[in-house]
DNA sequence: AAGTTACACAACCGCGGACCT
DNA sequence: CAGGTCCGCGGTTGTGTAACT
C-alpha cells in the first residue's frame, strides 16, 4: 500500500519561485496565517504549488527576520560545536542561530564549512587508520578546544576530516589527541573515563577496552550500540598521574546517531571550559528535556596557554567478519 | 567569445513520527 | 489498535552564475 501523494504532481508548478508567487504567499500568510494546513494553503492562496513547497519557501526565504549572507565566526563555531555534539540535526542547530534556517546551515556546512575544516587534519586520519585499520571509518570529528589564552587560529573548535551518515555504528571510538602538554591531561581524562565504571550509570555500561597506540594515542571502545549515559560526573583522573577531570556525560542514543564525547580538562581550565562549551551543547536534550551533555571540551591542564585537541570519532566494524 | 567546470544556493523528494479518526 | 493524513526533517538534486580554459 503506497503513500498518498501530498499533491497532484501533474498540475503543480515546480522549480524556482517567481516574485509574484512570493508576494501571493507572503500576503496570504500575513492575512490568514498558515492555518495549520500547508496542503490546503496553496489552493486558498491561489498558488499552483505543492503545500510542502510553500512551507519550504516560507520557512527558508520569505519568513520575517531571516538572515542571509555570510556566517560570522561565532556562528561557525556554534555550528561546529553542535555538529560535533549532535551530528546533522540541522533543525536543532538552526534553533541556536536566530535568523538562520536549517537549510541555510546545511548548505553552508556542505559547501563551505566542511571543506574549510577538512584542511589541516590530514595527519590524524593516518593516525586513526594506523591503529584502527580493520574498522570502517564512519565519522571522524576533530574537536579543538581552545584554552583561554589560545591563539586565534586555535579558536575554531572543530575540524572535520571525514563525515558520512552516522548510521549503523557498531563501535564508537573515543580518543584524545593532545598538542604539547595538554595531551597528557586529556589522555588522563580519557583513561579515567575508561577505568571508572562509576561514571556511567546507564543501562549498558559498555566501555570496554582502552588502548594505547604506539605514539601515545589513547582510545576507548564502546562495544555496545545502545549505551545510555546521562549523568555528568567529575572523575579524578587516575593512572597517568595527572590532575584531570571528566566534566560532562555522553550518550549513545538508542538510534545510535550520537556519540557524545566526554572531554577532559586540565584542572586549571575546567571552569572556563565548562562555560565555553555549555552553550555549545545546550541544545542537546533527551525526550524528557534532561540535558544529555553538559560539557565538552579539552584544555591545557598546565596553565591554559596552549591549545589542545580532542576528537570523538565513530567507527563501524560491520565489514569485519 | 565560447565552452566547461566549480560553486553556492534554492528547491525537491522521501521517510519517520505525530496526530486524528 | 490500525490506518490515513499531514508536518517536519535531512539527504539529494537542480539551477544559476562565476571562474577558468
From TrEMBL:
SUPFAM superfamilies: Homeodomain-like (SSF46689). One of its GO terms (cellular component) is nucleus. It is found in: Nucleus. The keyword S-adenosyl-L-methionine does not apply. InterPro entries: Homeodomain-like_sf, Myb_dom, SANT/Myb. Residues 296-321 are annotated as: Disordered. Keywords: DNA-binding, Nucleus, Repeat, Transcription, Transcription regulation. Residues 9-62, 63-117 form the HTH myb-type domain. Residues 305-321 have a biased composition (Low complexity). One of its GO terms (molecular function) is DNA binding. Residues 9-62, 63-113 form the Myb-like domain. Its main location: nucleus. SMART domains: SANT. It holds the Pfam family Myb_DNA-binding. PANTHER family: OS09G0431300 PROTEIN, TRANSCRIPTION FACTOR RAX2. This is Uncharacterized protein. It comes from Setaria viridis (Green bristlegrass).
